[in-house]
Amino acid sequence: MLLDAPVVPLLPRPLILPPKKSTPPAFYIADAGLKGAGLFAAEDIPTGAVILVDRPIAVVPSNVNAHWKREAFDALLPRISQISRETLLALANCKPLSECPVVEGIALTNATGIYLSAPPSVAPQEYGGVFPLVCRANHSCGLNIAVKWDLPSFSVSMYALRPFRAGEEIYNQYIDVLAPRAERRAHLARYGFVCMCSHCDLPDEEAVTRSDAARAELRDWHQLHPRFLPWSTDMCRADDAIIVSNLRALALIEQEGLHGMRVPFIEEIALSYAVLGDEPRFREWAQQVVDFCAGQDPERATKFAGWIAHPRSYKQWGWRAKQRQLLDKQKEPADVDISIPW
Ligand SMILES: C[S@@+](CC[C@H](N)C(=O)[O-])C[C@H]1O[C@@H](n2cnc3c(N)ncnc32)[C@H](O)[C@@H]1O
């Protein structure tokens, strides 16, 4: 490990716990054409499933000066086992030797952000983990997996954000995928490639403008669209304001392949139906939250599963339906409709 020396004694002990197992292996590594090697689904994988669990071969501190880093990289190879050395050296390197030595190039090509905290006094610090399996996933500007770091087991878990068919390539996300295509491409130049994923390789400028606009709208969503909490107690808003708005978000997410962004929108639709007291639709949408979060966010999945079992235990269950009935009873014939349609 290339851990900064002062941090090591502060790390919690015992640090290394057995990683969680994913059985049977749901992936394989194979040739991905011009992208080099890639990660592929070995079987059909459902949304929310753990695809793999991986431990770093090396951990690279960020924010150290280049001189220190180079010395540390030079010292790494003789200090790791032969199998780790072979695995590390087999990883991709997008940096020419004229720019930096091999191990540093491999770390710069592959390192993924992880957090190490050294209690009691040191706040979590960002490091780069070089992972033998996760690092084989190529980049796509669509989001079809999530990677979650777990410090106690010193491992990352990779989750499916949408169903995979056997043989389909599994992609990671190296950069902010809500940025416009030109910005994303400039960013990815640091990995030495022009992104030709299906979300970048578009037929014409019109398609690029449409995609950029969709991503910009998703990025600024909460400045542009109604929010769930104020809506839930504001009877001047249309009853379906959040549902209509979030269905639009889900359509944009589908269009751009940004599956990882779905949960908060699905969750708000489910809760909107709860506030409206619509039990069948609440169950349908809440079940989607449960399916999506079972692996990567079990707490949220359990909370929604509880509400599916007992919908009325949701504290605002049917609040708007009751208010609407009261308002209807008091309603005088009105000349104008004062509800705001957004
Ligand atoms: C972290 S590695 C990914 C695995 C790598 N393909 C391998 O053979 O081990 C990053 C490198 O993969 C290639 N790569 C990843 N995503 C790509 C994409 N969308 N288009 C082209 N090349 C890509 C680039 O060479 C990049 O520097």
TrEMBL record:
<dbReference type="InterPro" id="IPR046341">
    <property type="entry name" value="SET_dom_sf"/>
</dbReference>
<protein>
    <recommendedName>
        <fullName>SET domain-containing protein</fullName>
    </recommendedName>
</protein>
<dbReference type="Pfam" id="PF00856">
    <property type="entry name" value="SET"/>
</dbReference>
<dbReference type="InterPro" id="IPR001214">
    <property type="entry name" value="SET_dom"/>
</dbReference>
<dbReference type="InterPro" id="IPR053185">
    <property type="entry name" value="SET_domain_protein"/>
</dbReference>
<feature type="domain" description="SET">
    <location>
        <begin position="25"/>
        <end position="175"/>
    </location>
</feature>
